[in-house]
């Protein structure tokens, strides 16, 4: 069975959506970022960057080949199990890959950085806070323009590009954006939202998302908690051995 580490971030959710779309059985493990579990030795053995998601497919890439970076995971799964969501050749393939990589390299980083500073009241009026607000505005405008005259980001067919982008826009209200200001994106969001795979994933992770929302709300004015959670004062090399074991499915 496929093993997946990471549940609630947009990057973890998009992998789960693709797994559900493909009908692949998998076991998902929560990585407790509140306790910095992503820096435990067991997790770093799978991904030295210390980020999730990480996927292991014993019957595909092999039990000793962890795949990390969400874009790489989506490409691996689509090419191995579901080529309809990532065409293997022709213009449709390149349209899909362009927007998939745009999400990984631009949409996610810009919206993620904006969200980071938007959450922290003391940071919103700083140079960094204003910079990422402008960058996020640009992302939203470009995506709205792209989807205005087509059903999906790569054209008229749903693809891994939509799967990659959807979780980042699903929470746009928490970044200060309103769906009414982006009617084309709103219509696209509605088309994707009703897919059974999407509903299934969000039902599964709802409790974990509530935990994260409560943590953020409780600690919005607690710099010490935010500094620890977002790693503002300690790099991975400075972090101690937390002694936090991963689920038994983790490779040794």
From TrEMBL:
Q: Name one GO molecular function term.
A: oxidoreductase activity
Q: Which InterPro entries match?
A: Glutathione-S-Trfase_C-like, Glutathione-S-Trfase_C_sf, Glutathione_S-Trfase, Glutathione_S-Trfase_N, GST_C, Thioredoxin-like_sf
Entry EC no(s): 1.8.4.-
One Pfam family hit = GST_N
Say if the entry is tagged with keyword Transmembrane helix.
Answer: no
Recorded superkingdom: Bacteria
Which keywords appear in this protein's UniProt record, sorted alphabetically?
Oxidoreductase
- Enzyme class per UniProt: oxidoreductase
Boundaries of every GST C-terminal domain copy = 89-215
Q: Which family does it belong to?
A: Belongs to the GST superfamily.
Q: What is this protein called?
A: GST-like protein
Say which species the protein is native to: Sphingobium subterraneum
